[in-house]
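RECORD TYPE: protein structure
NAME: Alkane 1-monooxygenase
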Amino acid sequence: MSTAQISTTNALPFWISVTGVPLIFAGAYFGGWILITLPVYFVLSSTLLDALVGLNTDNADPDTPDDDLFWYRLVTLIWFPLQCATLICLVWWAGRGQLAVWEFLVLAYSTGLLTGGVGINYAHELMHQKNRLERWLGDLLMASVLYSHFRSEHLLVHHLYVGTPRDPVSARYNEGFHRFFPRVLRQCLASAWKAEKAMLARRERPVWHASNPFWRYGALQVGFLALALAVGGWAGLVFFVLQAFFAVLYLELTNYVEHYGLTRKHLGDGKYEHVQPRHSWNAAHRVTNWLLINLQRHSDHHYKPNRRFPLLQTYTPDEAPQLPLGYPFMTGMALIPPLWRRRMNPRVRAWRKTFYPEIEDWTAYNKGTLPLPKGS
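PREDICTED:
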């Protein structure tokens, strides 16, 4: 692997997601088939460009200081005001009653693709930072899709317990997305609440203490719902809730893809091996990594969670399992369980033989019936 250069010019491709804003406005204004422009652009065009451009196996110096990353970071900092303004305009437009029912639904889906595929992705980057402004921007982005508890669940549960039965979003081998999605919706909120409650208890504070972030989560979400109702009326409120649903759907599709079938080895007595790059699917596809600000370098993100997106490293197949295509197409494939299993189950079995040849019986791993990690 060669070394990637950190420069203003190299930061520019990571701004590709901003082009989704004029595309969705064009779809809303012109209606008809123009409404599918954004989904086609984000899912199909990016995948085709990946095939043409190829993989990016360059790695930046992980010790690059934040001051050298300004143009990379700026796109994540400006995204909330850009998304908020876009969302308010679209809620108002949808509330005018000029769209056919199918146009209303397709526009809500396209908006959710923007707020989920880009907005939640940027929120994910921001919530991992220590900077107070960035963490607040992450909270605002998650509230705009009514999924604020994701921050608590992601930071306090997912990163600690990924690949174990304690983590709701580690998709099990042979678990179709249609089973995974309702399970995650049911378990993640309770999991996030339990984690925050435990943290407050360690500080000797009651669960209703003002420092419980669920107060903030609730207030921000109610604020967005009230804003949607004020701007777009009841139709605008329905549109807002629908786009939030599609955004969350895309988030959980991504979670499903990122860890499908990958587990950490149980060492006995509720102890599990440390998280390694091999416990997340890696994808080095250049264009979709531009679009998703290197989210597909997920193996390194779990190995070094505080590393900013331009500095995430990619790995070779002997270090981490590789996806055949980028996330946009893989998430679509996940919606078709037979196709997904045909493409991914052989890869999971190959991963098991490569990294854990000593494990002969995977039944407990497949069913998630191993002991919960100690301290969870």
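COMMENT: The chain has a mean pLDDT of 95.
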